[in-house]
Structure formats: C-alpha cells, structure tokens
C-alpha cells in the first residue's frame, strides 16, 4: 500500500463523512485513473471506514450507474467477524435482483491469488460458499450464492481436465 493510501486511511478513520463526500465526487463516471485508484482503495478496506448510510444514498441517487459499479469496489467478503457488516452481502440484499450487480460482484469475489492445484483451490472455495449458504436467508443473496456455486463447479471441472492433461 502506498503512503498516499495510508494517509487517506488515517484521515478516513478520523473524518469518514468528510472523506466520503470528497471521494464520491471523484469515483465517476467517468471512471478515469483517479477513480480507479480510489475504487481499489475502497475495495482493499477503505470502504469499511465510510458511513454506510451515505454510501447507500450515493448509490440510490443514480442506481443505474452506481449499483453495478459499487459491486466492483465493495470488499470481497460475503461474511465478516461478529458485529461487522459485510458490504458485499448488504449490496446483494439491496440490489441483488440486478444481474449487473451480481455479475460484477462475482468478478470482484473471483479476483484472487493462490498456490497449488487450481481444482483444489476452487473446491475449497466452493465448500466455503456452500457453508455460507446454509446460514443465509435472504433470497437475493441465495440467488447470488447459487450462481457462484454453479460457476465454481464449472471451474473445478475445467481445472481438473487441464490438470489431468498436464499430468498433475
């Protein structure tokens, strides 16, 4: 993380409303390089300091342009620790009926790195998502989870075929 991000995080912790109102202006559209860097900072944890009610108001003010976009910068966790709110889950609760939101959140949650066999990675991820499903009650979140599980199943199969072809 750059020094700029560290300073922005310190300021956001101290004055979240002020920071949100400043950065929301630059988030776009247009989605330029400045918007991209802000978006990455938000995804990497900066959003956790922002006032949720202000973020939801910002999205609601231009639902067509902002709901799908927010799915690209919410932190990529469907669950959090005790007492914390999952931005990804809340986004699905509010806007998960929209295909563009689900698609962009799927891409967001699939941006990752791992070591070892690809099929093993996706099998572990699929088990984790299936465990989440057991605790979930919201229909929008369940729809997303079902689509995600289906996608992971296809990835597992493709990875197994490729691993077999390569002699793993």
Topology (elements, then pairings):
Blueprint (H helix, E strand, L loop, with lengths): L2 H12 L1 H11 L6 H11 L8 H10 L1 H11 L13 H9 L3 H11 L8 H18 L3 H27 L3
Helix pairs in contact: 1-2, 4-5, 5-7, 6-9, 8-9
What would you say this structure looks like, in words?
With 168 residues, this protein is mostly helical. It is built from 9 helices and no strands. The radius of gyration is 17 Å and the shape is globular. It starts with a helix and ends with a helix. The model has no long low-confidence stretch (mean pLDDT 92).
Low-confidence stretches: none
Helix/strand class: mainly alpha
What portion of the residues fall into strands of 2 or more residues? under 5%
Total of DSSP H or I helical runs spanning 4+ residues:
9
Spatial shape:
globular
Number of strands: 0
Described by strand count, sense and barrel closure, the largest sheet is: none
Distance between the termini: 36 Å
- Average pLDDT value? 92
Q: What portion of residues is helical? A: over 70%
Q: From the alpha-carbon coordinates, what is the Rg to the nearest angstrom?
A: 17 Å
| Helix-strand sequence | HHHHHHHHH
Question: How would you describe this structure in keywords?
Answer:
globular, 0% strand, mainly alpha, single chain, 168 residues
């Amino acid at each position: 993380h750059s020094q700029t991000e560290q300073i922005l995080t310190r300021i956001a912790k101290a004055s979240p409303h002020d920071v949100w109102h400043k950065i929301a202006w630059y988030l776009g559209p247009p989605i330029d390089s400045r918007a991209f860097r802000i978006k990455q900072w938000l995804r990497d944890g900066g959003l956790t300091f922002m006032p949720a009610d202000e973020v939801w108001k910002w999205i609601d003010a231009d639902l067509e342009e902002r709901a799908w976009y927010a799915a690209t910068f919410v932190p990529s966790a469907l669950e959090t620790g005790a007492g914390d709110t999952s931005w990804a889950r809340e986004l699905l609760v509010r806007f998960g009926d929209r295909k563009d939101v689900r698609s962009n959140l799927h891409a967001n949650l699939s941006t990752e790195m791992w070591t070892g066999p690809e099929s093993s990675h996706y099998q572990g991820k699929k088990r984790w998502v299936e465990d989440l499903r057991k605790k979930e009650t919201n229909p929008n979140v369940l729809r997303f989870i079902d689509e995600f599980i289906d996608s992971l199943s296809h990835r597992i199969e493709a990875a197994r075929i490729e691993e077999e072809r390569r002699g793993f």
